[in-house]
């Protein structure tokens, strides 16, 4: 083979290799499917117990799917969605009209999958004799009109529990006896050490506490909140499902991928019978009740 032929041969070989490499790169970048590939998801940190339960079972069933989940306050998650740094999230609410408009302007269809009903729990020490509270009393406390010696603590100034209560009470700034710590765990530990205080946490943390705070949760109890009918309700699967407990919220997976990727796959799993059974076992209320098999013996 002469030098010219040799040069031509290696030039063609290099071109083929370049094309193959380019195809491989394109295939790799678009390889995410509903149960295959890798993606990122931000979840409301107040929902850690139930989201972690769901993902562990999802990962066991779909070995080729990897979702890297980070837990953050609601405000941080919304900011990440609106700056397009994340496109899958789990929140205690749907996007509001202003937030949804961001995606409408970009021609991206947002798919919201409701998968559970949670509640905002008011918890106190088991030794506290005061176990009843009304929504009006909550509003007065947050307006600074209630008992100033009664301490209320919640997880984070940017959390979903705070935004829920601000909307409920129409209060923008809380008084000195209502203040934020950093996490749900810190709230539970604080109330454990100050049993006459009132902690505000997701029901999920009381129903499915992580092992490191399980002992502290045992020392706490739910407060009963007055309903519109005049009765008092604690958060339970029944009162969450029927929404007779006054402080309920729906949980959603928000999928802004605009394609059939892992967001679609995980949302489908959450809404599936297996996903709903995990919710049922957790103590929260599933969006749809799983079917029951009844064996009849003749």
UniProtKB/TrEMBL annotation:
InterPro entries: PBP_domain, Phosphate_ABC_transporter. Residues 1-22 form the signal peptide. The keyword Signal applies. This is Phosphate ABC transporter substrate-binding protein. Pfam families: PBP_like_2. Residues 31-273 form the PBP domain. Keywords: Signal.
